Amino acid sequence: MYKFNYYLYKMKQYIEQNKERFFEELFSLLRIPSVSAKAEHKPDMYACAERLSQLLVEAGADSAGLWETDGNPVVFGQKISGPDYPTVLVYGHYDVQPPEPLEKWRTDPFEPVLGPDATGQEAIWGRGANDDKGQLFMHIKAFEYLVRTGQLKHNVKFMFEGEEEIGSPSLPAWIKAHKKMLSADICLVSDTTMISEKVPSINCGMRGLSYLEVKVTGPNKDLHSGHYGGAVANPIQVLCEMISSLIDSDGRVTVPGFYDKVVELSKADRRMLARAPFDLKEYKEFLEIGDVRGEKGYTTLERTGIRPCLDVCGIWGGYTGEGAKTVLPSEAHAKISMRLVPNQRSAEITKLFARHFKAIAPKSVKVEVKPCEGGDGFLIPISSSAYKAASRAISEVYGVEPVPARGGGSIAVLAEVQKILGIDPLLMGFGLERDTIHSPNESYLLKQFFGGMESIALFYKYW
User: Fold this and answer.
1) Tell me: the pLDDT tens digits for 76-111?
2) Is a pLDDT exceeding 80 seen at residue 456?
3) Is there a single domain that holds both residue 86 and residue 116?
4) Mean pLDDT of 290-318
């Protein structure tokens, strides 16, 4: 029997009364091209951080401001309600992925708009709409509601960084230097996805990452393909052959030692994770692919949640302009990503890969391996009071109990938060796969945007 939730009703009222202001404030963030991967956007990083700091103060924080790091600034704000109250550290990131390829966007990536998706549901469109400006903004507004209605019974600290999309290179050192200031009982994060809008989920773990760039060099300059073709090793072909050898016919990574520390889940654990509904036909239709592929003996959800993998994220070399240029290139390059599961260590896997990749190179080329970013994976207990509070909150908003799930992506710094501050991350993410984060036409359904605010506010009530 349906039980009326007055607290949720009042939160919904507050959203309805203020949603136009919410859009205006969020759009002011989305218009700032805070792309951490490109040096020319350094001024935009500061502009976005300043705007976030302003929004935190307006929402009710006692203080908020920018803290310098070796890279982009951290936004730190807090509201201290009392020494005996539990403390929540809210983590998010204000940097975004580069918008390219621009020609694939239906709208300007940094001019956000409201509009329907393919199913007719209203969504916010623009780079960062979901990842992570839209999701961190939900926390600011849930906090605002609790402060303005006098219902906040927690100390709340906000830590928003500007380097997550490039691996958070500066944040661990900053956290170590400000460990006392950041002390908390839980780290609350919304930077992940749910299984679907009908089947909510809470991530109880995420994969780690080792990301590298490789360079294969052959002759000391580009050569005429007629004069030298067939006599000198072509770096592009050699690179392709080397990459092809990194995964065997069973879909397993061939780097020696790669699986040494991977913990095999029990049949009982795999059955529990299999509770998450998954429609393979729908999955393939959504991606417009004929079939899936991956490590033999595992389901698609297991391949993206509990198993490590290796992928080529970019490859280039030679002439790629219009028309023909018959050259045998001097160099070939690739960017390679390895997603790791708990117990695998990013630094160790990076060394294993570099050693192996150099070892398999023929004498006809020289090989360089450059580490770019990385971080370890982590797991959190689903028996904690914080997890149970989040589950109850989401259940009341969505009308269905959320399923515990493993995230296939990586938020590298959260393992550092867990290690340095001694607190577990709680991943209350509200994105969906249809939001196409990191790709053109990123969007965020309004019902997820508002549902996230409601769930976060209820979390504070139940924890």
Assistant:
1) 999 999 999 999 999 999 999 999 999 999 999 999
2) yes
3) yes
4) 95
Residue 1 has pLDDT above 50, yes or no: no
Alpha carbon of 423 to those of 340, 415, 463: distances in Å?
21, 10, 15
Same domain, 33 and 95: yes
Domain containing 336: what range? 208-262+308-375
Token duo for residue 317:
């070399």
Q: How crowded is the C-beta side of 200, counted as CA atoms within 13 Å? A: 23
| Segment 381-390 mean pLDDT | 92
10 Å CB burial of residue 231 (0-12, 13-18, 19+) is: exposed
Q: How far apart are the C-alpha atoms of 438 and 435, rounded to whole Å?
A: 9
- Mean pLDDT taken over the chain: 95
Number of folded domains that form the chain: 2
Per-residue model confidence (pLDDT) at position 2: 52
CB of 377 within 8 A of CB of 410?
A: yes
Q: How far is CA 133 from CA 369, 407, 411, 460, in A?
A: 33, 19, 15, 21
Do 170 and 68 share a structural domain?
yes
pTM above 0.90, yes or no: no
d(CA 408, CA 394): 21
Give tens-digit pLDDT for 296-309.
999 998 999 899 99
Q: In angstroms, rounded to a whole number, what is the distance separating the alpha carbons of residues 335 and 37?
A: 14
The answer to whether residues 322 and 191 belong to one domain is: no
Omega before 435 within 30 of 0, i.e. cis: no
Q: Is residue 280 part of a domain?
A: no
For β-strands 309-317 and 331-340, DSSP reports them as antiparallel
Residues 355 and 383 placed together within one structural domain of the fold = no
- 141 and 192 both lie in a single domain: yes
